[in-house]
Design brief:
Layout (H helix, E strand, L loop, with lengths): L1 H7 L7 E4 L2 H6 L2 E5 L12 H14 L4 E6 L4 H12 L3 E7 L8 H8 L3 E5 L1 H7 L4 H10 L3 E2 L7 H12 L7 E5 L4 H9 L5 E5 L6 H10 L8 E4 L12 H14 L8 H13 L8 E5 L15
Parallel strand pairs: 2-10, 3-4, 3-6, 4-5, 7-8, 7-10, 8-9
Antiparallel strand pairs: 1-2
Helix pairs in contact: 3-4, 3-8, 4-5, 8-9, 9-10, 11-12
Length: 304
């Protein structure tokens, strides 16, 4: 894997930044950010963590083409297209929804990296995206391919995310992370000892699938130290308001750390609200994973 790190010029292990403010001092809270957003300018955040061992497995099994899934603004497909190109793989993206007349910046970038895009209507995608006639047709055209589930959510993705905690050399009480597919959360929970608690922040109201995914990997009695906070999504996935935008801008000014509006902005907004309401014990040491996602800002036309 060292060869891959050199090819992609990845900054691993990612640095850890401490957030200093009078607010945190008053609350007697230590807050640190694991800056996975700085791993790479394209394959940032948890994207590389979830791709790393999948690429290794594809190579070991002799595949030259990798196929995966995602929405029209998928950070996962965006990162995958670049990584595949740099590492000599062909890539195919199955996109949720019908093809728009004009592709957005995310999908246009995927095409620039020679990713072949196929579109699957939302109903078929939700019901049976991993065993669909479209995949049979794609195989007839492009031959065999290695399949990575949406968001990199499989055993290899979880394995890569387990390395996040292993890079931290000091003790802490809480680990906070935005919850998407549940893959990153599962890897982190599996690496935590029972003296630290995992808090997941979901940007959507229904988290049953995410909890199911986490339980799949963390069902052991040794992994009972986690929870996903409800009602922290601003009305749903992709929903934003003026208070959130104001907070993100102020956070960037104060700490020189950019946040997206889908995941990280909502996480920090809600985390600060919890701190304000004394959710955490005094002297608590909290780590937040900055899981990237900044390319998704291109679709919002916001000056953050």
């Amino acid at each position: 894997m060292n060869i891959i790190l050199n090819i992609l010029n990845l900054n691993i292990p990612s640095i850890i930044s401490k957030i200093n403010s009078s607010f945190l001092e008053e609350k007697e809270i230590e807050l640190f950010v694991k800056r996975d957003d700085l791993i790479h300018n394209i394959i940032s955040g948890n994207k590389w963590r979830k791709l790393k061992y999948n690429f290794q497995e594809a190579s070991n099994r002799g595949f030259s083409t990798i196929l995966s899934f995602g929405g029209a603004y998928s950070n996962h497909l965006h990162a995958l297209s670049y990584a595949a190109k740099m590492m000599g793989f062909r890539s195919i993206g199955v996109v949720r929804g019908n093809k728009a007349r004009t592709l957005n910046s995310t999908l246009s970038y995927c095409l620039e990296n020679n990713m072949k895009l196929f579109f699957l209507d939302r109903l078929s995608y939700q019901k049976n995206k991993y065993n669909n006639q479209l995949l049979i047709d794609i195989q007839k055209i492009h031959g065999d391919f290695y399949t990575i589930p949406e968001g990199g959510n499989n055993d290899f993705g979880v394995l890569g995310c387990q390395e996040i905690v292993k890079e931290i050399s000091f003790d802490f009480d809480y680990f906070c992370c935005a919850v998407g597919t549940g893959c990153t959360s599962s890897g982190i929970i599996r690496s935590l000892n029972n003296q630290s608690h995992f808090l997941g922040f979901a940007p959507f109201p229904k988290v049953a699938e995410q909890k199911k995914s986490i339980l799949k990997y963390c069902s052991s009695v040794l992994h009972h130290n986690w929870s996903i906070l409800p009602d922290k999504h601003f009305g749903g996935y992709g929903k934003i308001n003026g208070n959130l935008i104001k907070f993100i801008r102020q956070f960037n000014r104060d700490n020189s750390i950019k946040l997206d509006v889908i995941y990280m902005g909502k996480l920090f907004y809600n985390l600060y609200e919890l701190i304000q309401n004394d959710f955490f014990e005094k002297k608590s040491r909290i780590i937040v994973l900055h899981s990237g996602g900044l390319q998704g800002l291109n679709g919002f036309n916001l000056n953050l």
